[in-house]
Amino acid sequence: MGLSRLKPDSVDRRIIERMLEAANWAPSNEDTEPWRFTVFTGEGRERLAELFGAAQQEFMANGAPSKGKDAEGARKRAFAAPVWISIGMSPALKEDGSLLMSEEEEIMAVACAVQNLHLMGQALGLAGMWHSKGTSVHPLVARGLGLEPPARLLGFFMCGWPAGDWLNGSRRPLSEKATWIEEA
Q1: Is the pLDDT of residue 106 over 80?
Q2: Domains along the chain?
Q3: Could you give the CA distance from residue 73 to residue 89 in angstroms, rounded to a whole number?
Q4: What is the chain's Cα-based Rg?
Q5: Which of 65, 152, 156, 158 is disulfide-compatible with 81, CB 3.0–4.6 A?
Q6: Phi, psi torsion values for 155, nearest 5 degrees
Q7: Contact 154, 84 (CB under 8 A)
Q8: pLDDT at residue 64 greater than cutoff 70
Q9: Phi-psi region of 170 (alpha: psi -120 to 50; beta: other; left: phi over 0)
Q10: Residue 116 near residue 40 (C-beta atoms within 8 A)
Q11: Pair 138, 59: CB distance under 8 Å
Q12: DSSP H helical segments within the chain, as ranges?
């Protein structure tokens, strides 16, 4: 699902809240509930545009390939979807400051939350995707969202109303991915 396949139409806050509530019921070991979300809609996306622009400037200043994007292009991207939801992971800590669960366990719990969020969005008619590279995980953007280590920014879920017919996807056969071991 590309951003160009979304209508610019706004999404009612109650729909987004239902998606977040579904995400909140994801499983997590020791009930750590490490998911943290920040929702950007409407003019609130200007704050996201500032963060994306600053992150892109830092990428370029450090000689990273820009894939044809300058800071202004990165800023404009924040307005390419009507809803952006940051995906943060804030791990549970023991009294001594060490992790209660492994970082891997906490990330898997966040992934479950995002899956719930995505499924609820689709059930309500939205199209969306999780983007997890470039400015979507840049440390400057993470800091701007209050995600300081050991918390992490794992990307953004962007969504909106589909601009056309639902895309028909395809998958390789399940038989290539599942093995059955049965008793005789």
Answers
A1: yes
A2: 3-167 (3.40.109.10)
A3: 27
A4: 18
A5: 158
A6: 130, -160
A7: no
A8: no
A9: beta
A10: no
A11: yes
A12: 13-24, 45-61, 71-77, 103-123, 139-144
